[in-house]
Amino acid sequence: MEQLPKHIGIIMDGNGRWAKARGLKRSQGHIAGADNLKKLLRHIQKWDIPYISIYAFSSENFKRSEEEVSGLMKLFVTLFQKEFQFLKKENVRVCFSGRKEPLPEKVLQSMDKIQEETKLATGATLNICLNYGGQDEIVDAMKKIGKQLKDGVLDINQIDRSVVEKNLYQNLPPLDFVIRTSGEKRISNFMLWQSAYAEYYFPEVYFPDFNEEEFDRAIEVYQSRDRRYGGIKDENKNS
Ligand code: FPP
Predict the structure, then answer these.
(1) Residues whose beta carbon lies within 6 Å of some atom of ligand 1
(2) Dihedral through CA 174, CA 167, CA 128, CA 114, nearest 10?
């Protein structure tokens, strides 16, 4: 299979361990992760991959120390207001998945700003999962569908997968490939609906070290996989 994934997901794990291994603070690990992300996003533009989803902050991450959470929130504001400006030149459309509550107003404003500034971009789509949980996304979709049933604009017999998909946070194609860095082998509530048939890859490097070369290796791994979507390979059908 020489095909490229149409939609790739990256669980950017290991910033904290990367910092600890160097005697640095966790916040410095997140800054290193953000720097790496910028390089990686530039690099990914060279590949023809139209959709990229990244896990920036899970709903559960609010359980971390107040110092770490507020450091990350500040980092998000700087990234969306300043450092991600290059995405405009790269013609990348930025969108977000997740709940607004309890994100600070400043973060919400910076998210709105970058979404608005890039909404007409015709290149790749970067979906940033922030204050995101895959189960919450399905719950929120169920609530929207419930309201449509109650309002009489949808009939129960019309509910199928496409109706569920239309009510998720963003209208995105299924994930083909999910990369989780740092060697941890868990999904951790990342895009559960969209990853039903995704291939997974768990490189043994922390996210700040997951560089362009590592990314190219990941694509090679994807291309060596045999995707069957629950079926069997054509040549084996009759044997
Ligand atoms: C997981 O590593 C990483 C995070 C919770 C934050 C990810 C954020 C960035 C890479 C900053 C830039 C992001 C965007 C999209 C604006 P960890 O802290 O759980 O690491 P550990 O498992 O080693 O402790």
Answers:
(1) 12-17, 30, 33-34, 37, 54, 56-57, 61, 75-76, 79, 128, 207
(2) 130
